[in-house]
Specification:
By secondary structure, this protein is an alpha/beta fold. The protein is built from eight helices and eight strands; from the N terminus they run βαβαβαβαβαβααββα. The protein has a single domain (5-279), classed as 3-Layer(aba) Sandwich (Rossmann fold).
């Protein structure tokens, strides 16, 4: 991985930060994305000190805005016209229904539409870096989900875990559809379930009540570490064992079958077409 360019979204905390550290120790050049510039600066300083790798840079963007995703892509391409690895890790959960700056349900916007658009905008650079890899953090939260094509913005019924599960199913379907489009281009697309990981994910959400915060902290005591959760991210980004493998869903560095809904290629194609329309790409 020495000198290879790795873009990691959501890289200032939790799984993303642990994955960034693992890539940095292997000599990769890192472009680290996060929402908060101050937190990003601290993360970069820490990662440089711990890894001994000075080639780490922070780029800020709010994934609740497609315009900011576009600005992030432009900033990445300015620094790295060739990309070896894209890790789509950024994600969130919203305990009350919120709407993005573009008018879309926020969980779907941040967890699916933002990485969908970013990947599209960086694809030419990934093709230049071939053999290259796209790794997306999904979740077993998708297991009970189905894509509600008749109400993608969840205007009729909203629950935080329901919305999150839909977005993670979208990650899996996106990976499958992307892998088909990348056949013959030496660019692979995989996704993973990191397990239940002890992170700050959702903990600072302003809509999370005191009771939910207490439950979150209690349950998190039994969760795995971010380093453990990041193992599969690093494996899919670096291991020769998965060279050329594309379209799969993994857990603990092994292939795992997603739900039947996560294997529905007709739904994957429909979601792809809808997502193109929503983000404004052809």
């Amino acid at each position: 991985m020495k000198g290879k360019v790795c873009v990691v979204t959501g890289g200032t905390d939790g799984i993303g930060k642990a994955a960034a550290y693992g890539l940095a120790t292997r000599g990769a050049r890192l472009l680290l994305h996060g929402r908060d510039p101050e937190k990003g600066a601290r993360a970069v300083a820490e990662l440089k000190a711990r890894s001994g790798n000075p080639a780490i840079e922070f780029l800020a963007a709010d994934f609740g805005s497609l315009a900011e995703v576009r600005r992030l892509a432009a900033a990445v391409l300015e620094r790295a016209p060739r990309i070896d690895v894209l890790v789509n890790n950024a994600g969130s959960i919203f305990f009350k229904r919120a709407v993005s700056k573009d008018g879309y349900e926020m969980t779907f916007a941040v967890n699916h539409l933002a990485p969908f658009l970013l990947t599209h905008l960086l694809l030419a650079a990934l093709e230049l870096g071939a053999p290259s890899r796209i790794v997306t953090t999904a979740s077993n939260a998708h297991l009970r989900a189905k894509i509600p094509f008749d109400d993608l913005q969840l205007t009729r019924k909203y629950s935080p875990m329901g919305a999150y599960g839909i977005s993670k199913l979208a990650n899996i379907l996106f990976t499958r559809a992307l892998a088909r489009r990348l056949e013959g281009k030496a660019v692979s697309a995989t996704c993973l379930h990191p397990g239940f990981v002890r992170t700050n994910f959702g903990a600072n959400n302003k809509d999370m009540g005191a009771v939910l915060k207490a439950i979150f902290r209690l349950v998190s005591r039994f969760a795995r570490t971010p380093e453990k959760g990041a193992e599969t991210v690093i494996y899919l980004a670096t291991s020769p064992d998965v060279h050329g493998e594309s379209g799969g869903y993994y857990f603990d560095c092994k292939p795992l079958s997603p739900s039947p809904a996560g294997q529905d290629d007709d739904a994957a194609e429909r979601l792809w077409q809808v997502s193109e329309q929503l983000v404004g790409v052809a």
